[in-house]
Automatic annotation (TrEMBL):
This is NAD(P)-dependent oxidoreductase. Residues 2-161 form the 6-phosphogluconate dehydrogenase NADP-binding domain. It comes from the Bacteria. Keywords: NAD, Oxidoreductase. Residues 164-280 form the 3-hydroxyisobutyrate dehydrogenase-like NAD-binding domain. Belongs to the HIBADH-related family.
């Protein structure tokens, strides 16, 4: 099949190169033609416009700065939908708004084009090496038909639901990353200011129970199953440790904004009489605030872990 690629920035260039390396007949376009030089040398064809590219291809990829650019490239004057043939597939690799991709998806359906939101995780290095997770939202049957091409650019192809689900998963992932890193910086400054050398502290953290586990694995046995009894680490004991940490931070005049928020949840959970339950029990408070129920069976948790 003939494949188009629009958006040859730090991420797009590597992914487009891997599509070409996989043997696909590649047509490319970007606001800056010089960004396509290495691809043209590798045999890709340059298109002078979005519509000019769309008229030639069966599948198109876009890797753009955000929702505004994605909508314009897709539905604007001279955009993809002005020239894509019915039956074509469009994979938008942009980290995007789920609302926007759903709206554009509706317009795509009117033109007989199948849109998938397919944001990626792995950074420019992963884009070049093909070590990318791709979170896909879109119709299951259409994904069976078109999704195989994603193997050329990523090693973890994850259809997570219908249109918009791909970006929802990506935004959850990135927001978690930002929160976790901020928390690490907070406690790291406390440890260094209390006298521990940074490299030794980092090594110590990596070798602890949390450091040895994949970031999201440790919520599987408790929080995701609502399995808090009997505890593996009681909330009373966790609260004692948190209190001691905050006392240490106060001693060295280290601000602990994230830890203070955790302490507030701990105290609310203790006030409800949850002290003898597992230390993950306060996470239920967020479920209540959000108005959601999250409860997987042990088999469902294991099935996810078995996927690798």
């Amino acid at each position: 099949m003939k494949v188009g690629f629009i958006g040859l920035g730090a991420m797009g260039l590597g992914m487009a190169a891997n599509l070409r390396r996989a043997g696909h007949d590649l047509v490319v376009h970007d606001l800056n033609r010089t960004s396509a030089a290495t691809l043209e040398e590798a045999g890709a064809t340059w298109a002078d416009s979005t519509a000019g590219l769309a008229s030639q291809v069966d599948v198109v990829f876009t890797s753009l700065p955000g929702p505004v650019q994605m909508r314009e490239v897709g539905t604007g004057e001279g955009g993809l939908l002005s020239a894509l043939k019915p039956g074509s597939a469009w994979f938008d690799l942009t980290t995007n708004s789920p609302t926007v991709v759903r709206e554009v998806h509706t317009v795509c359906r009117e033109h007989g084009v199948e849109l998938f939101d397919a944001p990626v995780s792995g950074g420019p290095k992963g884009a070049r090496s093909g070590k990318l997770a791709i979170y896909v939202g879109g119709d299951a049957e259409a994904f069976e038909q078109h999704g195989g091409i994603l193997d050329a650019i990523g090693d973890q192809i994850l259809r997570v639901g219908d249109i918009g689900a791909g970006n929802t998963a990506k935004l959850v992932h990135n927001c978690a990353s930002m929160i976790i890193r901020s928390g690490i910086a907070e406690v790291f400054t406390m440890g260094v200011k209390a006298g521990v050398e940074p490299a030794a502290l980092w090594h110590a953290l990596r070798q602890g129970a949390i450091g040895r586990a994949r970031t999201f694995d440790r919520v599987g046995d408790r929080y995701l199953q609502e399995a808090f009894d009997p505890p593996s680490f009681a909330l009373d004991l966790a609260n004692k440790d948190l209190r001691l940490a905050l006392e240490l931070a106060e001693q060295f005049d280290v601000p602990m904004r994230a830890a203070r928020l955790v302490q507030e949840d701990f105290q609310e959970a203790l006030d409800r009489g949850w002290g003898k339950r597992d230390s993950q029990t306060p996470l239920l408070l967020q479920n209540e605030r959000a108005g959601v129920t999250i409860k997987l069976s042990a088999d469902e948790v294991q099935a996810v872990l078995d996927r690798g």
